[in-house]
Amino acid sequence: MTNADQIKNGYIDYVLTHGEQPKTVYNFAKKLKMSEADFYKSYPSFISIEKAVWEDMTKETLVKIKEQKVWAKYTARERVLSFFYSYIEKLKTQRSFIIYTLKKYPNRLTTPDLLSGVKIIFYDFAEGIINEGLEKGELADRKFFSNRYKDALWIQFGFIINFWIDDNSPAFEKTDEAIEKGINVTFDLFQRSPIDNLFEYGKFLTRNSKFKEKMGI
Amino acid sequence: MKTQESMPTTKVERSVKFVTTGFKIGGNYVKHYSKKLFDPELTRDELNEDNATDIYNSLSELKGSALKIAQMLSMDKNIMPKAYVNKFSQSQYNAPPLSGPLIIRTFIKSFGKSPEDIFDAFNPVSTRAASIGQVHEAILKNKKLAVKVQYPGVADSISSDLKLIKPIAFRLLGMNEKELNIYIKEVEERLLEETDYNLEIRRSIEFSKACRNVKNLAFPQYYPKLSSDKIITMDWMEGLHLKEFLATNPSQELKNKIGQALWDFYNFQQHELRAVHADPHPGNFLITPDEKLAVIDFGCIKELPDDFYHPFFALAKPGMIDDKAATIKAFRELEMIHPKDDKKQIEFYYQSYKEMISLFFLPYATSTFDFSEPEFFENIYAHGEKITSMPEFKQPRGVKHFIYVNRTNFGLYMLLNELNATIRTDTYLPHVSYINQQN
User: Fold this and answer.
1) Distance between CA atoms of B157 and B62, rounded to whole angstroms?
2) Contact at CB, A171 and B99, closer than 8 angstroms
3) For residues B337 and B339, what is the distance between their CA atoms, to the nearest angstrom?
4) Which of B99, B173, B176, B221 is deepest in the core (most CB within 10 A)?
């Protein structure tokens, strides 16, 4: 085990046993039988450990889903679905700790500093998928909006995690449903829809009929 | 194939769906009557067609139990107008599948492994639909397998679906809710059983073993170790569905052979096992290249208790139906005639049910029966249409067992009709020990 791993595991263990973070880095390092300097070599603060746990889980999930043989055949929609199912499975292994870290951020509407690293990783993943989806025509390329697709997925990210934290159903079945529905709705919006056609039609009418004159424009 | 991307599962969403349907049916009636104002010749066929389309569309989006109910209604052709039947018959084939990642998720939950880790090959796109699940092709050790995966959340939603479908059933069948409850409960029990894949795999093994001596049947082998409460793994059966089979222009001899296998399969179960595969939907059978009938779904089993079996099948005995006293006694036991019916009502129900039962048991009256005979089915339809329009039959009568027994036998007759088969009907006869006591 590397120094960083030892600190990480020790920290998780400490937090789950005591229900709070260690009082000082000095005290915690002493418990791990290392010097404070050893701690700072790996992590600048306790919160950075928590951030690292989240980031590691996210990265590990991404590696794992991309290893699936079916991955190459998946559409953008399926890739995102696959990510969330695997992510929840992964988070399950550290559910108590995950809940502990999030409980410190009662405002669930904004991205907490805790997840700032995860957000970068997720955006990178989402952007790749969205760009491929746009290229293949699976997703509708809309001026201004296409750039915001990843934000919509990040909102889903927050929603799904929050849903899972409060989920009491056996085997978190309700979270599965939340994922299936939420991601599908989001992707339905990314695809070409009647609204696009309506918009196109409106544009056509304003350009090509006497509509303009009649409206006195 | 188009993948269904969302399945409305919360009760509210489902309610909305059903409400929309109810609303649309209302709209269809308005459309019908306003058209009729100008064109008095207009028949209800078009209206029925419109209604069936709307109901089917919303049911197929709901999946699960609602789809099952659509199928069930589609089997009861005797009480459903033709337009409903044609639309509903599609239900098994056209159910759009759920997303691939969710399938993998279900595997991980059941076995801790993804399908690609369990099988040598697994096709994430479902190739066949099962009503409460979907079927995937897989290969393990050079053997082609069929893996049936249940839609998540199906069991939860059945009861709420049935509650929601009641007003629609009430409208369609003209029944009142209180009377309908006992039947709905029977349906609910069977449907909940169907969601129990552990039970299904046990029964599949049991029934395929029990029926192994019935001629020209084929059963897949089941793999309990590769099955769970949400997944069933069995051999992949090669073969054609009934419609595809008929499209190949099979010889009359072959059609008779398959028809005979169907008849024997059902009647062996009814009379020898007293429990019957109660889902004679074309989607549950395949005709194999070596001219056998493969049975691929044992989800729905109806057991026939003695107090139903004996009085009911006693009526199949030639001549029995003309013995008025004995027949009325059987009708009473089957609750087709109620204790508080007066003399006039007894006579009325005796005559009507006599007609229905004689039709039902007509194939048993002779040792061979030609199911291609359109007259037989026209009579059944005509009778069905007649009784649906009679106020006396507004409330359902008869013990609850009739739902599945009717569905099974009429379903069987319909399949034999589609095959145009002539078959021997005396291969597995009822064993009735029915003592005719006069009360």
Assistant:
1) 10
2) no
3) 7
4) B99
Contact A78 B104 (CB under 8 A): no
Q: Residue holding tokens 């291609």?
A: B372
Mention every residue, 6+ apart, whose C-beta is less than 8 A from residue B130: B148, B283, B297, B299
Tell me which chain B residue has its CA closest to the CA of residue A64.
B114
In angstroms, how far is the first alpha carbon of chain A from the final one? 73
Helix orientation angle between A76-92 and A173-190, rounded to the nearest 10 degrees:
150
pLDDT in tens, chain B (439 residues): 344 444 444 544 444 444 444 444 444 544 444 454 445 454 555 555 555 555 545 444 444 444 444 444 444 434 444 444 444 444 433 344 678 888 888 888 889 888 888 999 898 887 776 667 788 999 999 999 999 988 776 666 666 666 666 666 565 555 566 666 777 777 778 778 888 899 999 999 999 999 988 999 999 999 999 999 889 999 999 999 888 898 999 999 999 999 999 999 999 999 999 998 887 778 788 999 999 999 988 878 888 998 889 888 888 887 777 888 888 888 888 888 888 888 888 888 888 888 878 888 888 888 899 988 888 878 877 776 676 666 666 666 777 787 788 778 878 888 888 888 999 988 888 887 655 443 3
List strand residue ranges (DSSP E) for B203-290, in order: 217-218, 231-235, 275-277, 285-287
Q: Which residues of A fall within a CB distance of 8 Å from B108?
A: 89
Q: What is the rounded radius of gyration, in angstroms, for the C-alpha atoms of chain B? A: 22
**CA distances from residue B437 to A156, A202, B323 in whole angstroms, order as listed:** 71, 81, 12
Task: Kindly report the length of chain A.
Answer: 217
Q: For residue A177, list chain B residues with Cβ-Cβ distance below 8 A.
A: 9, 152-153
Q: Is A181 touching B (CB cutoff 8 A)?
A: yes
Q: Cα–chain-centroid distance for residue B309?
A: 19
pTM: 0.68
Three-class SS of B295-357: ECCCCCEEECCHHHHHHHHHCCCCCHHHCHHHHHHHHHHCCCCCCCCCHHHHHHHHHHHHHHH
